[in-house]
Amino acid sequence: MKKTVYYLVIVALSLLGLWALWVRVEQGMKVTALTSYISWGLWVSVYIYFIGLSAGSFLLSTMIYVFRMHQLERVGRMALLTALFSLGAGLLFIWVDLGHLERFWEIFTRPHFTSMMAIESYLYLVYMALILAELWLLMRDDLATLRDKTVGWRRPLYRLLALGYRTATAPAARQKQVEQARWWITALGILGIPTAVGVHGGTGAIFAVAIARPYWNGGLFPIVFLVSALASGAALVTFLYAAFGPRVAEFLQVLKGVANLTILFIGIDLLLLLSEAVTGLYGGVPSHVEVFNAIFQGPFAFVFWLGQLGLAAVVPIVAVSIALTRQPRLPHPQAILAGHPAPPRGNAPTARRRPVGALTLASLAIVAVVVAGDALVLSSQRAPVLLAASSPELPVLSTIGFWVAQLALVAGVVALLAQRWGSPHFWLGLAGLSTVAGILAVRVNIVIPGFVVPVLEHLNHAYQDPRLRYTYFPNGLEWASTVGLVALIVFLFSLAYELLPIYGLEEKAR
After folding, report:
1. Domain for residue 431, yes or no?
2. Average pLDDT of span 102-123
């Protein structure tokens, strides 16, 4: 019943997204709230968000298969599948943002290699081929088995996906197949490392080389993109494995390993953020200072403090730190005396029930906070962007102190709940989800603040026209298309997750 409701909702949202896409195709970019001065908005923010998720997930898989992190191998296929669909989502949103959708193929037939976007487009093709090849090598034996044993409409699907592969029956031949697959997976993973770095580091370079945008111009920008990609990719795999992963003996150990990697990447990301902010503010260049003022204490403060720092850093760090110190709850002694077997020793959770319902509710709550915060921030741009930053009623120290107090309150609530309620794997999954949601705030704070400060002083007052404004708020069609197209990608991912042997045939049969 729950699955039916889930698919009904996700299909309805997907149809909404397809309708909004049709309107966009028919009427062009005039249906958006973008202006001549703010040419990148919600769609570009979501584009770099999903490209980051993809690159981070893929690099996590390379750590598993190239650097032999065997303790995390159970999430390797999931990481690659996530990388594939996240890449598809990112390309879908940048395609929607093109002025002429029907001309997208010309970047491949008539490329200008002085353009970072042209270079990136070819990298996307290589990157997609690497993901598909690795996935097939990892699943080819399982696909061949499903082709031979499955009946009905699925059999032709598995026959197509197996590509004629046959699993050898002789032990020596079988061992040779395994070794060849392992060699190719390692080789493709090694090739994929610079490709994935180029995919998302290059996306950061698109911003870093933009002319007359001081907020973006800097050598750290591609590195910031790359590190936040690693954090978001590891966090997404953490959430998916916590919610849907098979409850085997090493479940909690694997989950803790991925969560630890997420916290490591978050720490590096915070260090880069501090470096960027200190150099931007200490340098005293007005165009830099104005943007950072708008982010730290102006109309973007909600997204920065509660989104970028709260959801993407404070909540996951506190939740993971406490979850790692807790032990799984053991059954009551009377249950053991009554004949119920004791759980396996070690880190295996005792309950087989997956926290899908609780994590889903938490997902909705976190996404609601992020969307509401983004909407509040973006809508506040209807007033002059630096109004809040220069307001005498909100001095710098008191404004920052207010937001620090909010972060402390959030951290305290999370710490109290994590100590007294819920299982460790619930809080590890929530930490991953919080990071994934918070990275969206990071992307919003990258794209839009770079536009809202005029490149020439008082240019925002020189002309009065709806298309010549330094304010931007996504309209209903932009929100509908974004939510709907994300739902479409989630729908396709859900189908792939159900049909493909993500955890192998043994876990698929459970």
Report:
1. yes
2. 84
